[in-house]
Structures are given as structure tokens and as C-alpha cells.
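So, can you check this record?

>
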Amino acid sequence: MLSQMTKPSPWWTKHRHQDRRPFLMARARIKAALRTWFDTQGFIEVETSCLVPSPGNERHLHAFATERIGTDMARERMYLHTSPEFAMKKLLAAGEEKIFTFAPVFRNREQGALHSPEFTMLEWYRAGEPYETLWQDCAEILHIAASITGHTEWHFHSETSCDVTWPYDHLTLDQAFSKFAGIPLHETYGERGSDRDALARHAHAQGIKIAADDTWSDIFSRVLVEKIDPHLGRGRPEILCEYPAHEAALARRIPGRPSTSERFELFVSGVELANGFGELTDPSAQRLNLEGEMAERQRIYGERYPLDEDFLAALAHMPPASGCALGFDRLVMLATGATSVEQVIWTPLVNTGK
């Protein structure tokens, strides 16, 4: 344990705040510029509730739980949301067409240079537009942030920088697995399901450690983290797209290709900045996907979160749409040259050391 003398000064001490202040002022300017851009594109800024009955249903996201006590002293389990996604889709069902938000979101078990338990998510939706439109939105956001800070070459703990003024490149998951891991991913999944043993053999041959109880998804995620993600967004921004459908519970299938989904991620200098979908609007299919995610969560962590029945009901009225979530703190960190998201958060969470 660090002694009192060697602990870092609190973020609110004047000298430490002055060190961080240039990053924080850049954050404010970037946010203002992005608000202006969204406004010129015809978007409406919305605000969503942080306190929800279901925090989201992704298997590996951990929520903060609390309790709502009514005036009659009745108690109800509630959560801080891990994303404003469900609420924003309800707004689309209500008739909104182009919306965005800077939402405070909360994720437990996350802390580090790229993670904070509380952070800001920039999320936006376009009704009636293909998900590839969001790729250009992401490029515009990078350009705006770079124009504010004057830094066009971004990097994170790497000698290889990413020039965000260059046109983005894109590659599919199949292409990425072949290029960076030497694995023919398309041979291990399809309309009839996934072949766990085939993927395990390929991954083992590439030096990936495989446990006996690892599922296809476990192995898939490990290959991504170890072999693929670090190489993406080197030199220029990069879009990773066309995910296996069972790795994109909230995304619709690509027409004519039922085993592949309209999901993409944006990478800059090996850092994942954004995650976007062509949105799934079939309530029955969505329920099955979310139940599957929670079954996996139960298997891995021994717990599950309730489904948002109000969200599933709203999907029946939601128009075709595309949406994207971007880590705003990560964007500011890369654009300013900061080395940790804590440097660009006005009041970062204090680690008590207890």
C-alpha cells in the first residue's frame, strides 16, 4: 500500500488542476463544436434518465444497483444505466428522427487509462438511414475534435500515430481475422450456428490460450483483444464491420446474410472509440437475443439483469434506424494528447484505497 507521502495529490489541488486544465478547456470546446455540428445536421439534443429498471443486457457490462423507495415504503430494484440506448430508441418510437445526447453512463468493474466507472457517452441516431452513414459521422467528429486542438496525429501508448484527417479505411471481421490472426473466421460460423472446436483449433495454432470451458464467443473475444484490436487505426482511422450476428444482440442482420449483422466499431491508434449498429427493430428477435445475453451472463457471472419490457414494447413502433455510441472522454484524451481519461474528466472518481 502506498504511504500517505507517496499518494498522488487529489485532483482538486490547485497545482494538479492547473496541469489538467488545458485538457478540460479543450473538452469544453470540443463539446460545444460537436453540439453546433449536430444542430446544423438537423439533430435535436435530448436528455435521458440515468435511473432505470434495467441497465442494459450486454453479457459483460456490469451495472451499479440501487433501490427506489416509494412514499408507501415499497421498494424497487433500480440501476444506473450503462448506456442511454434503450431510452433513445423509445424516443425514436415516439416520433423523433435525428437525436443525440452527451449522457453520463455508469459501468462497474471498470477502471484504467481507457476506463472510468462514470464517463460520458456521445450517442446519436438517424431514423431511415443506412448504418454506413454513421461512418461518415464518425469521420466528421474526428475532424472537428482535431480542428479544436490543432492535433491531427493521435496516438495512445504507441509509436504509431493515426492521422485523423486521412479518409477512414474499413475491413470486415472475416478480413481482420485473416489478416492479423491467420484465422478463417467465416469457416467457424454460419446459418447453422458456430463451430467452437474449429475456432479453438485455429486460435490454438496462433498461440492463443484456450480453456476447456471457453465458448465460441469467449475465443472470438480473446482473438480480437490479443491479435486484432491493437493493429487497428494505425496510420488512419479504421472501421471494423460486419460482425457475426450472435456477437451483436442489438443489431439487425445484413439483408441476404442472416449470420452477419450490421455492426461496426471505430478504431484510432488501437483504441476503440465508437460502436454502431443498423438497429434491430423486431421485438421477438430482440427478446430472444437479450435473453441469450442474460443466459450467458448467468453462466459467466452467476447473475442476470431484468429485461426492459417497456423497451421491447416500443420496438414495435420504432422506425428503421441506425445509431452509434462514442466514448467522449476517449475522444478528448486522444485529441489533446492526454494519457488517461482521468485527465480529461472534470471531477474524476476518487480512489479511496479502501
Summary: The CA atoms of residues 180 and 249 lie 25 Å apart. The mean pLDDT is 94. The first strand starts at residue 44 and ends at 45. The longest helix spans residues 14-40.
